[in-house]
Every structure is written in structure tokens, then in C-alpha cells.
Amino acid sequence: MEVDYIIVGCGLAGIAFCEQLYSNQKSFVVFDDQSQQSSLVAGGLYNPVVLKRFSKVWKSKEQLDLAIPVYQNIEDRLHVKLDYKIPVRRRFTSLEEQNNWFEASDKEGLKPFLNTNLITNENDAIDADFKLGEVLETGKIDTNTLIDKYKDWLKKLNSYYPETFNHNQLEVKSTGIHYKTIKAKQIVFAEGFGLKQNPYFNFLPLNGTKGELLIIKAPKLKLDYVLKSSAFLIPLKEKDQYIVGATYEWIDKTNTVTQKAKEELLNKLKTFLKCDFEVIDQVAGIRPTVKDRRPLVGAHPEHKNMFVLNGLGTRGVMIGPYIAKQLFNHIENEMPLDDEINISRFTNL
């Protein structure tokens, strides 16, 4: 079999790159062993503001302008609902936080996204005496449905290989890439934290942070927006169910849930949730995070038909389509990559 591209990984990065290839009539196959869970445990939010510090997300407008149409195209093609427009509100704990919000709303790049009309909390299940600030142009991508349905679509195209990619069987030649019975012009590794096991790119400083989420059931909560306080509270489409997240663990790099994370999230939740609830699930995954908080995109220093698309961190649904387009244009149209994402910043290590 001959194709234009082999893609390794079918999380948010891999899917975003598949979309670039599909819309540009390029042939491809995807290898995916589902070992990396970060896309599946992602809250799926797209939110252009860092709500801890009221600062702008890197290239937030450019990312949103690209990402939303990508998910709309997938929805239309796969006949599935993925994009749920939902407000994101920040719970204030003091007048000082309110003032910081107003100050931030005057800043360039934040003005379109911060509503200066504060919202009075009217939900008896939420403790929010200092009102709520609303972020505009926010929403949630149902990442579980996206990944499941996208794999089904790839299977129908005979483009999906649910198996571990064996790097030792990869032959890199000047004429292209050979893997088992497949010949390709290019290969793109979008393996998430699995990059640590990739002999071609494991020199890159992908630190990885473990994140854990709880799923709770709270019939009396009736929340129709995402609430950010000491933790995020995100409504799910399942009745009365919510995500509580997320933790950040830098040492443990397993996908195993922990009692420590559960207690941390419950303690945070109880600072602002006043109704009864029950924990019905807990999930864990390793986010592909980089020390300078920028993605890892670019060509291998020696093999010019081998590329990496990684390091999406905590905002994969927003950043994935943006860096996928950057990489596609770099490969196919020889357009330079943004210096901040180019792995050349690390190839002199």
C-alpha cells in the first residue's frame, strides 16, 4: 500500500492533522494503540482566558477562528454533535478578584472575551457571594464522542490500524517511509506522552503532567454553565452529571487513579458546592506538557520526512487544529513554522 502520510496517534493532535490531510485530498493511515488517555480525560473546554490569573491564552483568537470550523466540519461529515456552546463563569472570592477582572477586561486581547457585567449567583447549590465573571466565546467539545466516532469513520475508510506502532520496524529512506507493507512520503508522530518511547523524538523535553478528574452526580445542582473556582465544574450531557477537575501531578506518570487526587478534588469542591452529590467515576491520564508551555512541532533534525505534532498540554481542543495547519503548510507549502512551536528551539540540546 502507498499513501501520502502515516500518522501515529489518534488523540486530538492526530485527528486535527487527519482533518488537514482529508481537506487537502491527501491519503493517509493512522496507527493507534489507545495507550494514551489524555485526550479522553480532557474536559474538552475551549476557553480563551487563563482564569487563574485573568490573562490571555497564547494566540487564542487565531486558535478559536481555526478550531471551531474544524469541529463543525467533523460534525457535518460524521452526523454527530460535538460542539456545545456553554458559558464559562469564574467564581470570585473577594472584591479584589472582581477588581482584577475589570482591570484585565481593559487589556488588549482580553477585551472581546471578558464580560464586564458581573452575574449575581442565583443557584442555591453554589456558594458565590462575590458574584461571577463570564468569559465569552467559550464552549465544550465532547472529546470522547469525537475520538470514538472519528475512529469509526477511519475504519470505514480502511485507514485505521488499532495496534502499537513498532518504531524498530520503521525504515527511513530518502525516497520515503517504509513500515511493514506500507510506503508513505511522510510520517507524523502525534503520540502524546507516548513520545517518551519514540526513539526518534524522545530527546524532546516533554515533561507530562498527570491529570485526574471526578465524575459526580448532583441532582439538585442544575448547573447550565461551566464554573471555575478552586476546581472546574463542567456539566455533562448525561442528566445531573458533572466533571470535577483537574489535578496536576508531575512525578507519578501512570494512568492509575489515586485516592490522593480524589480527596484533593473533593476538598476543593466542598469549598463552593452546597448540595449533596455522589462520585460515580474517576479517570486519569498524562497530559503532554512542555516546560515552556508551547507545543512541539517540526521535522526530525536528520530525517526530513519525519515530523512530530505534540505537546498540546491542557488546551488540546483549541490548539490542535492551529498547530496541525501550521505543520501541514510547513510540509506541503514550505511555510515556516512559528518559532515558538518549532522543535528547533530544542534541537541544540
Describe the model:
This protein is α+β, with helices and mostly antiparallel strands and 349 residues long. It has helices at residues 12-23, 60-78, 95-105, 143-156, 259-269, 316-333, and strands at 2-8, 28-31, 45-46, 49-50, 55-56, 83-85, 88-91, 132-135, 139-141, 160-161, 170-173, 176-179, 182-189, 209-217, 226-228, 232-235, 241-245, 278-287, 296-299, 306-310. It folds into 2 domains: 2-42 and 144-205 and 291-345, 3-Layer(bba) Sandwich (FAD/NAD(P)-binding domain), CATH 3.50.50.60; 88-136 and 209-287, D-Amino Acid Oxidase, Chain A, domain 2. Helix 1 packs across helix 6 and helix 2 (60-78) crosses helix 6 (316-333). The radius of gyration is 21 Å and the shape is globular. The mean pLDDT is 94. 43% of the residues are buried. A hairpin with a 4-residue loop joins strand 4 (49-50) and strand 5. The two termini are 37 Å apart. The strands form 4 sheets. Strands 1, 2, 10, 11, 12, 13, 19 and 20 form an 8-stranded mixed beta sheet that branches. The longest helix is centred in the first third of the chain and has 19 residues, at 60-78.
Summarize the structure.
The protein folds into two domains: 158 residues, 3-Layer(bba) Sandwich (FAD/NAD(P)-binding domain); 128 residues, D-Amino Acid Oxidase, subunit A, domain 2 (D-Amino Acid Oxidase, Chain A, domain 2), CATH 3.30.9.10.
Query: Whole-Å distance between the termini?
Result: 37 Å
**Radius of gyration of CA atoms, rounded to a whole number:** 21 Å
Beta-strand content bin: 25-35%
Major beta-sheet overview: 8 strands, mixed
* CATH fold naming of the largest domain: FAD/NAD(P)-binding domain
Tell me the CATH superfamily of the largest domain.
Answer: FAD/NAD(P)-binding domain
List the helices and strands in order: EHEEEEHEEHEEHEEEEEEEEHEEEH
Helix share bin: 10-25%
Category from helices, strands and their pairing = alpha+beta
